[in-house]
Request: fold
Amino acid sequence: MNPRETVVFENGRLAVPDHPAIPYIEGDGIGPDIWKAASRVIDRAVELCWQGERSIVWEEILAGEKAFEETGQWLPPETLEDLRKHRIGIKGPLTTPVGEGFRSLNVTLRQKLDLYACVRPVRWFQGVPSPVREPWKVDMVVFRENTEDVYAGLELEAGSEEALALRAFLQERFGWDIREDAALGVKPISRTGSRRLIRAALEFAVSRGRKSVTLVHKGNIQKFTEGAFRNWGYALAREAYPDKTVAWEDLGENGPGDRVLIKDAIADIFFQQALTRSDEFDVIATMNLNGDYISDALAAQVGGIGMAPGANINYEQGFALFEATHGTAPKYAGQDKVNPSSLILSGAMMLEHMGWSEAARRIERGLESAFARKTVTYDLARLMEGAREVSCSRFADVVCSAMAEEPDGAA
Ligand code: NAP
Reply:
C-alpha cells in the first residue's frame, strides 16, 4: 500500500506529493455510479503514466443523503475540515434538501470555503453529437463569480413585514416607488469580489497563452452592478497586466500581437454570438447568474451537461473542489446508465491543477477514442447514428482500454 501524504499550500504554491490523500464526495442519485466509473479512469490514467510511482489515495468524506443517513447531518463539519486540510477535493452531484435552512449544499460548500471562482472549460470532442454546425469552434473557459450577485440569498418574501419595511425605507430615503406586493432581493456586486474573479481569469489567459478575455455583463441596464464589473475588469487588466493585455479600445492598427485581448459583451448579444461566432470567444469572466446560464448554454453546444466539467477554486488559499456540473438525475439512480464524462473530465481538471498534466491529457485522449468508436452512454447514443450504447461502467472500461492501447510515450 502506498503511503498517504498530504497536499501542502505554501507561499501561494501547491506542493503535491507522489501519493496524495484526496477527499471525495460520492454524491447522491447517480453519484455512486459516476464516481465508480470516474475514479477508475483517473486511477488508470495515473498508473499508465507513472507505473505506481505516483498514485492518489482516495479518502471518502460525507455530504448529502449518505451523510444524513450516517450522521444525521447533511454537511458534517468534518467534511469541511477535511477539504480545508487536503486543499483539493472532488465531488459528485448532491441533492438539495428542501426546507433545511439552506438553499443548496453546493452553494454552502462554495460559501464556507470561499470558493469564489467557478471554472468551467467548454470544448468539443470529435464525434460527440452537437446541435450546432461547427462545434469544433467552441473552446472557451468560463470564470463565473461564485459568492455574490443574486445568489447571495438576500431576498424578502412579497408582503412580509421585512419586505414592507425595506420598501418603506427605500421610498423614504431614495424616493423609489415599488409595488406593495413586490418581493425584494439584493444583488451585491463588489469591487473586491469582481476583481479577484477577473484576476483569476486574466492570470489563466496570460499564463496559458489564450487569445482573449471577454467580460460578459448587463451593464447597459444595471450600471452600478454589472456595469461596474465591466469597468473594474478593464481597470484591473491595465493595472496588473499592462504589457500582457490590451483593451479593445486601445487596440492599434497592428492588433493585439501576443497580448491577451480584453473585450466585453452584453449578456444577451453574447448568447447569440457564442452560437454564431463561437471562435471569437476564449476566456469568459462574468458574474454569478450570467455565469450559470452561460455555462449550461455553452455545454449544450458540445454535447450537454453530461459532458461538462467544473471546478470551484479559491486561488489565494489554495482550495479547489472539482465537480460534475449536472445534478443527481434521480430517475437514473443505481441503474449504471448515465454518462460519467462530466466527472471524468473534472478529474482531468484536478490532475492538471495538481501538475499531473500527462495523466489529464491521457484521459482526454481516452475519451476522444471512445467517442470516435461511437461506444457511448444512452444520452449520446440517442443522438448518434450507428452508435453502440454501453452502460456507465462499461464506458469507463472502454476509456481505460483506449488509454492503455496508446503507444508508449504518447503522453
Ligand atoms: P439533473 O440531475 O442535472 O438532470 C436533468 C437531466 O439531465 C437528466 O434527467 C438527464 O436528461 C440529464 N443528465 C444529467 N446528468 C446526466 C449524465 N451524467 N448523463 C446523461 N444525462 C444526464 O437536474 P435536475 O433533475 O434538475 O436536478 C436533480 C437534483 O440535482 C436536484 O436535487 C438538484 O438540486 C440537484 N443538482 C445538483 C447539482 C450539483 O450537485 N452540482 C447541480 C444541479 C442540480 P434526460 O432525462 O434527458 O436523459
Notes: Residues 30, 34, 93-96, 106, 305-306, 323, 326-329, 338-339, 342, 379 surround NAP (CB under 6 Å). The chain has a mean pLDDT of 93. The longest strand covers residues 117-123.
